[in-house]
Amino acid sequence: MSAGSGRTAGAVGADGGATPRVQRPPAEVRYADELARLRAEDTAERPPGWALSLQAARRFILGDERAGIRRKFVGDPSLIDRALVTLATSRGLMLVGEPGTAKSLLSELLAAAVSGDSTLTIQGGAATTEDQIKYSWNYALLVAEGPSRRSLVPAPLLRGMAEGRVVRFEEITRCPLEVQDCLLSPLSDRVLALPELTGDDAMVFAQEGFNIIATANTRDRGVNDMSSALKRRFNFETVFPIADFDTELTLVVAEAGELLRRSGVTVEPRRDVLEVLVTAFRELRIGQTSRGDAMERLSAVMSTAEAVSVAHAVGLRGWFLRGEPGTAADLVSCLAGTAAKDNPDDLARLRRYLEQQASRHAGGQWKELHTARHLLPG
Ligand SMILES: Nc1ncnc2c1ncn2[C@@H]1O[C@H](COP(=O)(O)OP(=O)(O)OP(=O)(O)O)[C@@H](O)[C@H]1O
Ligand SMILES: [Mg+2]
Q1: Tens of pLDDT along the chain (378 residues)?
Q2: What's the CA-to-centroid distance between 287 and ligand 2, angstroms?
Q3: Which one of 111, 151, 271, 333 is least enclosed by Cβ atoms within 10 Å?
Q4: Residue 169 — φ and ψ, nearest 5°?
């Protein structure tokens, strides 16, 4: 198939690209058919307010080949069991770990499995306010009618409590400490006070099914700063990077293939190129070659998530610039922006890696990586 005809079929559809398409629908939309099947076949006991039983939720996340359910998270199955059990208790779930270890993905999958909805999400940051977490007001109605349920604009926490659904709190440790602490009574007493309202309206009691999944990155301000009162209300689970090379490679091949298909690329990524990519990421991440020799590691994050996004970019370059799968030379062009960012020391380390280490590996794509080293900027 020629590059041109493949592009039209895969990327933009019959209307020539006029119909806008969601770039990344939430998990409950991406896997709607799997969730519907699991729900229809689910005969096990479910915790109150849950859309699926624990067994079905586990299969949704870890996959079930016989039932045609895709594996979405690669990791220790017992982590998933502990996470699900925590969500059925009165404690929140805190997922901590290195950047790019799929904490956000796991929290999205858990929320989709437990509540059928992963969109009640608060993105934590230095400027996050209590309004964005709990509720705010429609000022026109507030002025016209005073505070009332009608003039109240619920934010994810209030909605999750009132509707009995899981609320996701991303990067919680990036929020100011006093803002984090507004989760204390929702987590311990399962109630949210609305002091502006009166009577029955002044309290929102959490419905069955409500809980909170927070994520925190070990490279940001750590969980150590979090108040001990709040820490006690969460069960902590660490999400570790993928230890095994073959497992990481299989994941990168599958994820990059999926992203490329969604981007309209109709050729599969080359496995030998992705093998070079995953090996280079692992060596630069841990500061050791696959033969066991010490080498310089990069200070930039070289996570699996970054490897997937570079593999995507490599495939896009190959296809949209030349109409073929990406090669190791494309990898060199894509690496600078990921691995070196604005750090000149990392760029120098990366250059030394391409000069000294790439030539020691056998294989055509390693040779190409070495030959293309001059494509690094600077
Ligand atoms: N164990 C894993 N299972 C499945 N996908 C993984 C895994 N590790 C990394 N990934 C890849 O990383 C992507 C998810 O990264 P995600 O953003 O969830 O990481 P994160 O831990 O939240 O990172 P950050 O700390 O930067 O927020 C996935 O879409 C997938 O491509
Ligand atoms: Mg994240």
Answers
A1: 333 333 333 444 445 566 888 989 999 999 999 999 999 999 999 999 999 999 999 999 999 999 999 999 999 999 999 999 999 999 999 999 999 999 999 999 999 999 999 999 999 999 999 999 999 999 999 999 999 999 999 999 999 999 999 999 999 999 999 999 999 999 999 999 999 999 999 999 999 999 999 999 987 767 778 899 999 999 999 999 999 999 999 999 999 999 999 999 999 999 999 999 999 999 999 999 988 999 999 988 899 999 999 999 999 999 999 999 999 999 999 998 887 777 889 999 999 999 999 999 999 999 999 999 999 887
A2: 24
A3: 271
A4: -125, 100
Residues lining ligand 2 (ion), CB within 5 A? 104
302: its two tokens:
């070289």
Beta carbons of 300 and 343 less than 8 angstroms apart: yes
For a pocket test of ligand 1, which of 72, 74, 79, 105 has the largest count of ligand atoms closer than 8 A to its C-beta? Answer: 105
Rounded distance from Cα 305 to ligand 2 centre (Å): 10
Q: How far apart are the first and last CA of the chain?
A: 38
Q: Atom 6 in ligand 1: which residue has the minimum CA distance?
A: 102
- The string of DSSP letters for 202-221 reads GEEEPPTT-EEEEEEETTSS
Calpha distance 287→97 (Å, rounded):
19
Closest atom of ligand 1 relative to the 309 alpha carbon: 31
pTM: 0.93
